[in-house]
Amino acid sequence: MEKPQNGEKEEPKASICGYDSLHRLLKDNLNPHQFQEVSRLLTGLNCGKALETIALPESATALSVEHGFDLQAFSFCADKELLREPRVVKVGLIQNSIALPTTAHFADQKKAIFEKLKPIIEAAGSSGVNVLCLQEAWMMPFAFCTREKKWCEFAEPVDGGSTKFLQSFAQKYNMVIISPILERDINHGEVIWNTAIVIGNHGNIIGKHRKNHIPRVGDFNESTYYMEGNTGHPVFETAFGKIAINICYGRHHPLNWLAFGLNGAEIVFNPSATVGELSEPMWPIEGRNAAIANSYFVASINRVGTETFPDPFTSGDGKPAHADFGHFYGSSYISAPDASCTPSLSRNRDGLLITDMDLNLCRQLKDKWAFRMTSRYELYADILARYLKPDFEPQVISDPLLHKKSS
Amino acid sequence: MEKPQNGEKEEPKASICGYDSLHRLLKDNLNPHQFQEVSRLLTGLNCGKALETIALPESATALSVEHGFDLQAFSFCADKELLREPRVVKVGLIQNSIALPTTAHFADQKKAIFEKLKPIIEAAGSSGVNVLCLQEAWMMPFAFCTREKKWCEFAEPVDGGSTKFLQSFAQKYNMVIISPILERDINHGEVIWNTAIVIGNHGNIIGKHRKNHIPRVGDFNESTYYMEGNTGHPVFETAFGKIAINICYGRHHPLNWLAFGLNGAEIVFNPSATVGELSEPMWPIEGRNAAIANSYFVASINRVGTETFPDPFTSGDGKPAHADFGHFYGSSYISAPDASCTPSLSRNRDGLLITDMDLNLCRQLKDKWAFRMTSRYELYADILARYLKPDFEPQVISDPLLHKKSS
């Protein structure tokens, strides 16, 4: 919960760690012309059309001040078309830390997260957000590093308490809500899944998607708790556009992004839980690349804070047992298909990012760059089919002098 | 050929346009602690292991001063392994503007480019570069915006004059050279291709690869001149590792990057020709994403300068006819599989980027992140095969209240 730095140039090193976001650090320390050019290079903005900030109702800003969460709001540009009206959707992303120590009673922990989220969801609702997405496994600490099975108690069925909590807001604000939870599948032997539930703007459950790619890296061998999803790559047709969810580690898999695009997604949400040393330099790259390559919007969400656990655990890195596995660096942001992106939310604080996007931009970019038409998918259907065979032979052209030389 | 700015903070706007590279702009205007943190976020460096600059022989730096080209040299880190020796390869990239006006005799234009490149290639050779790559269609202006077929006269067979020019350097310096040219395929009806030729370190021609994906965007409808390549996704096994070439627009296609990876590439070169307004914000994203997703090194090269043509042409954007189609912004750089990258070469000047990379890092990242093992290619072979059929049905889950509401 460090305060953003105020832009003094010669501050001591310690305060660098307290900067709020890359965007603010640069804005505070470069002159306006420099900042404009750096923004053009880093966020694709100011190329004629700037990303505009949008005004929010006072009730929303008041909530952000009272509860200390970062609140930012932007609008992407799109061309006006002659035959289609603009299809502007207001998207909201929430990033947050947990609310109670992980030693508290599980019921209390969950309830405290509900309480903490209420004002942020209210701010989204009163700002007119159409589609809201929470972070991965938002209703619990991200305890999978511990390898202790007791945390499975947090899991809920698709129509469990967390869903019910959100359904009321969906109905109240006519808002689609994506709720990524730890799921308990009662009808299939009570197995566990990492699942995103899509709640319609009337409070109804439209459907669910289960995380396709499960990490086995660092402290994140999540297959201790749940396996690869069995729901394919569904696109959910909602009142506010066609949306899909690429959960966390799936963002490293270009084919996962691709499949949601082939199924017609216009916005793909990437609810995540990832820590600084592991992934922070990848974070601003992968969402943007997916938006560019697939001509859709990408909404990237990461949780915030450092979570400590009661029982120390080792991390397979030769270091002594410890009680946390790093800083969740927040930095949620949204990427557009034209290679522009919003600034990121804070690295340290809870936050709500609101962004207007005209979904017409997706097809405009398809028409401009023609990635889909120039994709030659037949080549790749073929190589993937061949690669899957145990006797796959890679296409390698060896220098004939290579072995001559060494003989 | 503007000079790099010298870091004064309050300069007028005009000089912003003359900054040499994003890296230098930030380094000159942030304090060292801020710059270190910004570098960590933007280039994945300083996470414990910094990217080191490496010393070059005086002959190379003297050439860069005499001929005014940007010369930068770095070394990526990799872990020491117990059972494999490091496999450090020194890679060189050259970016350059053309040498004579496009109105000069074609033979003179080509010869002048040869002369201009000589000292840069000599600097690479005398620095001990093992694998050198030139920019796309390096032996000519990038005239494809004009739609005039006279520029086809620049095309050469695989064993033509440009290849012969480079073969002598390959032999002299024991250096693999990748030469992207406009190819004339004599044996198949004299058709034209956009081709990269791989010249072995003994001066032999190892093979060729033809550009897989052809843009039809802005001034770049290159299918006016050449069609989609027919050489698959070859990986060339050279004396200095397994390399592949993803030519220009192919960088927007994640499947193209993927296929080179499936065939075993350790370094993928992306020789390009692309201009500011079209693609500059994408440029630092796509190469890095490919390196991360495929656990290999990516070397991104873009030409430099603004090329004007004798006959004005229109660009399909409603604007009057004009004689150039924008600024090739250079900015060549190299990305590593661990999400780090080098600073970019100048946006305005010719340049040579030299980088040491231990190819062992590729497998180290495969072991760490396990992207290959968690890829579930069977899902994607299946969806691509289905997508190719005219009656493909996307996987869409519609909100049942959607149509009820509107009725």
What this model shows, in words?
Chains A, B: It comes from Psophocarpus tetragonolobus (Winged bean). Chains A, B: Its EC number is 3.5.1.6. The structure is a homodimer of 407-residue chains. Chain A is built from twelve helices and 18 strands. In chain A, α2 (22-29) runs antiparallel to α3 (32-43) and α5 runs parallel beside α6 (161-173). The radius of gyration of chain A is 22 Å and the shape is globular. Chain A is of the alpha/beta class and 407 residues long. Chain A has an eight-stranded mixed β-sheet, sandwiched between helices. A five-stranded mixed β-sheet of chain A has the order 10-11-12-13-16. The N and C termini of chain A lie far apart (64 Å). Chain A has a single domain (46-364), classed as Carbon-nitrogen hydrolase (Nitrilase/N-carbamoyl-D-aminoacid amidohydrolase, 4-Layer Sandwich), CATH 3.60.110. Chains A and B meet through α2, α3, β8, β10 and α7 of A and α2, α3, β8, β10 and α7 of B.
What gross morphology of chain A would you assign? globular
Low-pLDDT windows of residues of chain A: 1-16
Per DSSP, the total helix count of chain A is 12
Total DSSP E strands of chain A:
18
Approximately how much helix is present in the residues of chain A?
25-40%
Secondary-structure map with pairings?
The structure is a homodimer of 407-residue chains.
Chain A: H1 13-16, H2 22-29, H3 32-43, E1 52-53, H4 58-67, E2 70-75, E3 88-95, H5 106-126, E4 131-133, H6 161-173, E5 176-185, E6 191-199, E7 205-210, E8 216-217, E9 220-221, E10 235-238, E11 241-245, H7 254-262, E12 267-272, H8 276-279, H9 283-294, E13 297-302, E14 304-313, E15 322-329, E16 333-335, E17 351-358, H10 360-369, H11 377-387, E18 396-398, H12 400-406
